[in-house]
Amino acid sequence: MEAASAHEGTRESARIGSTPLRPLRIRFDGRSVRLWLKLEAGNPYGSIKARTAHALLASLEANGELTPGRRVVESTSGNLGLALAGLCAARGYLCTLVVESNTPRSSIDQMAAYGAEVITVPEVSGGRTIDARLAVVAEILAQDATAVWTNQYTNPANPGVHESDTAPELARAAPEEGWDTVAVAVSTGGTLAGISRYFRRHMAATRIIAVDAVGSAALGGTAAERPFKLAGFGSGRRSEFIERHHWDHVVRLRDADAADACARIRNRTGISLGGSAGAAVLASVLRAIRDPAARELVCVCPDSAEKYTQLLPGRPAGAGRADESIAEALELLDLAQPDETLPRERAHA
Ligand SMILES: Cc1ncc(COP(=O)(O)O)c(C=O)c1O
Fold first, then answer.
1. What's the topology of domain 49-149?
2. Where is the signal peptide (predicted)?
């Protein structure tokens, strides 16, 4: 990864990126489509947020705001916090992370094991927990002159690293005829904005699918209650990075349907996906059903399932039935088979 070699980093920084791409094949209606899963759990600290955390710290180091002895502060649903905790420990910064009650316990324990201070805010009704987290960050910044906010919500380094690193990795591995679609779930929107900016310039035929949670305000609209809320998927606030031209299709999914997709993929293929990854895969299948020309679909899979207690072997109890079109897509996931094709760059290696 370019950013890692530009900044004398830790061993962990150097291992960020170049994550695996695993193809699955689904045959239906006389067609054959391939879903390519970009497995970001392969990063240090188990998620795509290793890329973001590294880029955020590097940006503050580069502009002189972050110097030894200072305290990094961030609001996080879990993944970014864990990566920041690890990287701060390696670089000698203090670290305070503001999380919420549905942040996975194991992530909090690992943050603390890296020496981070973890503050948990209780759930606020109406999808406003993020405001409570940000209020705590503001308090810390007001009280501690050594505190520096990485600010994943507005720092251009967030989309920047996906434009400079994540997207080119996807593009290099594309089949000869390119990707038909790339599906990205949104929270801050950094991943989607960065990938879209790159694809619009270098692979303009690829259609971008933005995947958001029902009840999220990440792409606009009002935040609402989300039963079975999955950490890292959607947001109580509109993304500061995403502009309307960044996506071609938007798919809004209920958390329970994303969890159901994760369960089916795991049962069928053994691949473990976190909720936002399951959402990206399910959204891609919905797209494939609607668009008979779509054959090669790549899905950004931010993390795996292990730390999420909501991700059970089946559909979450009490979730009710999926809507008809979603149910059809979920059933197609039961037909998914691991495919032997190698990503292009590896096949040519
Ligand atoms: C599991 C998971 N999926 C998706 C995302 C979304 O990434 P972004 O903030 O770039 O939109 C995050 C971010 O926290 C995440 O942790």
1. Rossmann fold (3.40.50)
2. none
